[in-house]
Each structure stands twice: as C-alpha cells, then as structure tokens.
Amino acid sequence: LLFHEGFLSVRTVYLGGLWVMIELNFPKTKNKLMNHVGVASWFKSLHNVHAEFVSKERIVWIDIEGVPLHAWSRATFAKIGSKWGEIVDLEDGSNDLFTRKRICIKTNHASNILETFKIIVKRKDFWVRTKELFVWSLMFKEIPEVEHSSDDVSTKGEADNIVEGSDLNNDDEESDNEAVSDTYFGDYVVNVDNAEVQGQEKYFGNPTVNVEVS
C-alpha cells in the first residue's frame, strides 16, 4: 500500500502487538509520510522511532480444553479470552473436533499463559485448561528492491487494522494448514441435529448460556 502511495523505498518491520516500524531512506521522505493524510488514516498513531521502544502488547494463540458441548459458542470463548485481554479471532472449526479450541488474543499479560480454572455453566462446575502456544506474527508483501541510503530514518505506527494481503505466520508447523475465519460462529450456534446443509460446520450449544469464569 505504501508503494502505491509513492513511497518506493520502504521497509516495514513487525514489532509485536499492533505496532509496526516503517524505515525510509531520507528525512524528507519521512516527513512526507508523517504528513500524508491517506497513510495516517491506516494507523491509530504515528511516532518517531526511539531506541527504548518495546511493545507492551502481545498477540498470542491459546489452546482451551474442557469446555462442555452445551457451552461451545463464540461468546463462551470470548469470555474466557477476556481473562487476559481482547479476543482477536478463533481457529477455524472442525466437525469432529470438540476436545479443544484455539483462540487468538491481544494481551498485556507479560508472562506465558498456562492456567487451569473453573467455569460455571447452568450452576455446574467445569475445569478448563489453557496453554499459550506461540506469538502471532505479521508478514508483509514484497515490494521491488530499491537502493537504500546509509542514513535511513525510521518511523513506527500502531496499526489499527492489519494490512490487506498479509498472512498469519505461526512458528508451528501445524499452523500452516489452519485458517482463521472472521465468521467462525456467526451470530448464533445451531444444534448438530438441526443442521440442514451438508458440509456445513455443525456446533453444539446456545450462545445465550450464561458462563461464569472464576
């Protein structure tokens, strides 16, 4: 996208969370980018780079086990994910796998997530096990090589949305075959017996079931 806006010699680096660093070859190019209305609309904010910067946010994948079938809904997993932060997405579902669910969350939780805790569904206790798997990372589209000056100037921006065309690059070989869907559960969950379309994903549960996470 930057290339199409006339910034031909650009390098983008993912810094963690929703932060990216943009490296440019001249100070005047940096100033042009900082004042570009279109570019500014892609980011929540733009700042000059400083050496002490560390992203406090992390976007990580978490495995969740132990959720009962009648509470198997997006609302349940969103509530569990809210223990550590904000849910970003859910792993694409499988008709024959209800043993675990993998979710992606944005969190400020500094330590590795590994917890066992109780949830209450219809006044009954269930023990849920959660384990952090790996950090989500961002890949950028390649642009034509342009010779860089030695006095590169850097800026960084906090991304409000992920650049179209980028891929989820998980540091786990299994994840290469796993997709993430924005409409995994839709607005409701159907009972497996009521699914009419062959090949359509089938789910147990009711999104209105009250789930307490303790």
Mean pLDDT: 69
Unreliable stretches (pLDDT < 50, length at least 5) are 150-155, 158-208
Structural class comes to: mainly beta
Radius of gyration: 21 Å
Task: Estimate what percentage of residues fall within beta strands.
Answer: 35-45%
Q: What shape does the CA trace take?
A: elongated
Helical fraction: under 10%
Order of helices and strands: EEHHEEHEEEEEEEEE
Biggest sheet statistics? 7 strands, antiparallel
Ends apart, CA distance between termini: 44 Å
**How many DSSP H or I helices?**
3
Count of domain modules: 2
How many beta-strand segments? Answer: 13
Q: How do the strands line up in the largest sheet?
A: 12-5-6-4-8-7-13
Oligomerization state: single chain
GO molecular function: RNA-directed DNA polymerase activity
Keywords: Nucleotidyltransferase, RNA-directed DNA polymerase, Transferase
Biased composition (Acidic residues): 169-179
Protein name: RNA-directed DNA polymerase, eukaryota
